[in-house]
């Protein structure tokens, strides 16, 4: 989802850090031999983006008290309880951006 959001920004000469608290996901993306579809998709998109955009994929320790990470963990666990297929693109992009900006302004700053 982060990769797709970066692509949607269409800004050249910018930089982004994507923080991941799953070592398995981090290593799957880094492994050139993986066949896991999501990892392959992310790696290909990152390679394409690196032509115009500086990017870093950074592993962070989960459950370490990082406010944004704790919130992401909570939301992931809440979503998992519903046992539905999540449609990440079912919310219109402008609404998604507004919700993210509001969350950041309220909870992090």
Short note summarizing the structure:
The chain is mainly alpha-helical and 109 residues long. The protein has helices at 2-9, 23-30, 37-49, 67-82, 93-107; strands at 15-20, 54-59. The chain has 5 helices and 2 strands; from the N terminus they run αβααβαα.
Q: What tags apply to this protein structure?
A:
mainly alpha; 5 helices; two-stranded parallel ribbon; 109 residues; single chain; globular
Tell me about this structure:
By secondary structure, this protein is mainly alpha-helical. Helices cover 55% and strands 11% of the residues. The chain has helices at residues 2-9, 23-30, 37-49, 67-82, 93-107; strands at residues 15-20, 54-59. Strands 1-2 form a two-stranded parallel ribbon. The two termini are 23 Å apart.
Compile the SSE list and pairings.
Layout: H1 2-9, E1 15-20, H2 23-30, H3 37-49, E2 54-59, H4 67-82, H5 93-107
Parallel strand pairs: 1-2
Q: How many helices in DSSP terms? A: 5
Tell me the series of helices and strands, N- to C-terminal: HEHHEHH
Task: Give the proportion of residues in helices.
Answer: 55-70%
Mean of residue pLDDT? 79
Q: Compute the separation of the termini in Å.
A: 23 Å
What does the main sheet amount to?
2 strands, parallel
Shape: globular
What is the number of beta strands? 2
The radius of gyration is: 15 Å
Widest sheet, order of strands: 1-2
Poorly predicted ranges (pLDDT <50, ≥5 residues)? none
Class per helix and strand makeup: mainly alpha
Strand portion = 5-15%
Domain RNase H type-1: 1-81
InterPro entries: RNaseH-like_sf, RNaseH_domain, RNaseH_sf
Protein name: RNase H type-1 domain-containing protein
Pfam families: RNase_H
